[in-house]
Amino acid sequence: MIDYETEYNNRARVPGVADIIAGWEADAAAYRESATCELDCAYGLAPRMQYDLFMPSDGADARMVALFIHGGYWQATDRKYYSHMARGLNAHGFTVCVAGYDLCPEVRIGDIVTEIRDLAQHLWERFHKPILTYGHSAGGHLTASLLATDWRARRLPPGLASAGMAISGLFDLLPLIRTSVNDAVRMDQKEAIASSPIAMGIPYGARLIASVGGAESSEFKRQSRVIVDFWSRGGIDAKLREEEGANHFTVVAPLADPDSAMVHDLAQLGR
Question: What pTM, to 2 d.p., does this model score?
C-alpha cells in the first residue's frame, strides 16, 4: 500500500528546505534589481492576480512570450520568490511573465486554473504572441492545464498556449485527497478528477516536456510518466526528462542558468 502522505510531503523529504526557499527569495530580489522589468502588473481585480514582466537585456524579440507559474501546492509562496526563474529565458531573447494567483483555501483549484487561463489571454491581448509556459510542482499542473485548454471556446487562437515544460508537476490529483495537502485544497473525488490534466482531454498539436528530479519520490516520478505516456498515446509530442540527483526543490535551479540543458530545451520549445 502506498503511503501517499510520505510520497507527497516534499518538505519532510528534503532537509534544509527553509534555506533553499530563503535562497530563492534573495536571488529573486537581486534579479529584480538588475533586470529590465515591469512589476506588479494586474490581470484581474484580486490582489494576487498580478504578474512581473522581465525583458531580455539585448533587445531580442522571441516568437513566443514565456509564462512561469510557481508552485506551493496551490496554497503557498508567491511570485516574488521566483523572479530569477526568468533569467535563463531572458538570455535567449524571451520576455518572461512571472505569474501570481490566488491561493487555497480562499479559492478552489478550478478557480486558479481559470485565473491562469485569464492571464494567458491577457498576455495574448497585450503581445499578440503565443505563450510558452513553464511551471514547477503546482505550477506544472497549471502548465498542463493551460496546454489542455480549449481556446476556441474563448474565441481565441487554438494554439495560444501549445508548448510547455512541466517541472515536477501534478497531473492526477486523486492521490492528494488522502494527504495533508488537501487540508487547505479541500478537494473531493469529483473535483480532483475535473482538475486533473489527464482528464481534461488530449491537447492536439501541443508539445510538452515533463521534467522531474532523480531524487524525487516514486509518486512524483509516476506523475510525470503518466502524463507523457497518456498524451503520447494520444498523438502529442510529449517527452520525459529526469534531472539527475535533483530533489523537488533543487530541480528548478537550472532555470536561472542560460547555459543549462533545461533552459536550452525550453527555449527550443519556443522557437
Answer: 0.97
